[in-house]
Design brief:
- The structure is a homodimer of 337-residue chains.
- Chain A has helices spanning 19-36, 41-51, 58-69, 78-98, 110-114, 116-135, 140-167, 174-199, 204-231, 234-237, 243-246, 252-260, 262-273, 278-290, 293-314, 319-332, and strands spanning 103-104, 107-108.
- Chain A is globular, with a radius of gyration of 20 Å.
- The first copy, chain A, is 73% helix and 1% strand.
- Chain A has 337 residues and is mainly alpha-helical.
- The first copy, chain A, has a two-stranded antiparallel sheet with strand order 1-2.
- Chain A binds chain B through residues 39-40, 42-43, 90, 94, 97-98, 116-118, 120-121, 123-125, 127-129, 131-132, 135-136, 138, 140, 143-144, 146-147, 150-151, 153-154, 157-158, 160-162, 164-165, and chain B through 39-40, 42-43, 90, 94, 97-98, 116-118, 120-121, 123-125, 127-129, 131-132, 135-136, 138, 140, 143-144, 146-147, 150-151, 153-154, 157-158, 160-162, 164-165.
Chain lengths: 337, 337
Amino acid sequence: MTTTTLAHPAPPEGPGVPPSLQRAAALVAPAIDRAVGRLSPELRAPVEHHLAGGGKRVRAALVLLSAAAAGADESVGVVGAVAVELVHNFSLLHDDIIDEDRERRHRPTAWAEFGVDRAIIAGDALATLAIQLLLEDPTPERVAATASLAAATQAMIAGQADDMAFEKRAEVSVAECLAMEAGKTGALLACAASLGAVLAGAPEPVAEALHDFGAHLGAAFQAIDDLLGIWGESAATGKPVGSDLLRGKKTLPVATALDRGGEAAAALRAVLDGPLDDAAVERATELLVDTGVLAELRSLADTELGLALAALARADLAPPAAAELRELAAFVASRDR
Amino acid sequence: MTTTTLAHPAPPEGPGVPPSLQRAAALVAPAIDRAVGRLSPELRAPVEHHLAGGGKRVRAALVLLSAAAAGADESVGVVGAVAVELVHNFSLLHDDIIDEDRERRHRPTAWAEFGVDRAIIAGDALATLAIQLLLEDPTPERVAATASLAAATQAMIAGQADDMAFEKRAEVSVAECLAMEAGKTGALLACAASLGAVLAGAPEPVAEALHDFGAHLGAAFQAIDDLLGIWGESAATGKPVGSDLLRGKKTLPVATALDRGGEAAAALRAVLDGPLDDAAVERATELLVDTGVLAELRSLADTELGLALAALARADLAPPAAAELRELAAFVASRDR
């Protein structure tokens, strides 16, 4: 029996939504509730507000399928799925403060509702809770999973630090941008994709192949996400189109366009050097189209998705779970997810 | 050979400073440097700025003496000492944001120097680094130490959440205040005092006695710290006298005074209900003296110190380390540390 709680809206449905996401939502929701229920009341309020916004549970689904792909029952991955979701939501709580985002998924962000201070420590509590959960039963597999999650968390934080630093720089190379995104987005997805296998005690090559799969999937995801951050749709992302540009974020489309050189790139540089108002964002968006970066990033996403699937094919995985991982990857890397 | 780096000013010296603090500073400084050196450059800058402010390394010394008390070499405790100091400094980085403290130990706080955003993720990075360090070599002892540190971190965050909530309340009971301080201050000190023994693989009763010692020491420390927060000296604490009152903090002196009832308590309540300006703080400070809370808290600190020493006496510890723990406890609970 699955119960829908206040903190967890119904999982996404509709054509194209992989069943693995719905299963993940149903499996982790009660476990997340139990975990969050252990926090002190003062911490629970902002945490529950934040979690009530939902989320697609992509990372949870990756952990569960990773366990199944390694031949274990999906239930073996649940603790890892919960831990990864807690770390993901810790990062969202702090990122929303840093990005000054007042809305997430059409609801006030935790800091907008409870103040910056409570949102800071709510995030701190979730990151710590993830470690506590995994180490509650310190089997060698769980300990390895904890170390993997801590490393991914550190890489994610470093990526966030670079992202912030890039906003203040006039130019960022494509390589720097890709490295930043590999940390900020890729590290936790790679960790999630291998964590189920780690918890299942899978051989190192299996966990490594799944880790590579997740890293490439992260790159594909981020390329699409960067496009959505400039060209919409706002309905899907919940953030106003152009907000990345308005903030001076050096996302991959910008870095790629500037890197190309030529007339459009020079014009774009001039616009981005000036005051970033709505008119500048509109002009920059047009110039980005002129540079052909839209097609290039779609192509990059396709390439990374291909590399992800190739990594998957490398390992000896349970066929049904591997099929579901491929389906989930296609969904994550699609433009209208 | 010990080297003094930019990030670590010379350890405290002078009459009354226990040698264990100086040994701890010398032992952990290079290990902290190495650990922080693994962070990305963008994170390192605010972290190194913060750490350059120094600190007495009380928690590090507790971990090292805890290992020695359990019969191991102090070196067994170094990784734990570093991890506890990292968690402590994570909390300071975030607390300074929350308390809007622009100065710590007569230098700009990290958020005042680098902005709130970078201070947030600098703290996040330190908390994560602590876990990574301990799990680098996942022996059963280190895994147990990691779980203990995560639990203490969570308790500390919960205490911080309560402290913030209390500021918005008109009244807080003494019991609530003590529970808050047991989390905010006591949990990490208790963890530190037992962590060396945990890392040394000491029997459970030894670790437990040391944990109790640290918890009582935390209560003694906090009682004194609360007094210093109202009556100074500013030179020792680096924060302006009266800042706790000005902020509406429901520290133990305030909770105790209000709990006593009577004329002075009623007058104090009236002052604290009004606008908190410098005159109100001066008047509240006088009224606190009238309630006799100064003597009461000094007495409480003495009692808690006694309980700490009793817990220590309960366990079978190596005599030289036990003697140094007693010396350190007396120093921590002294008014002019």
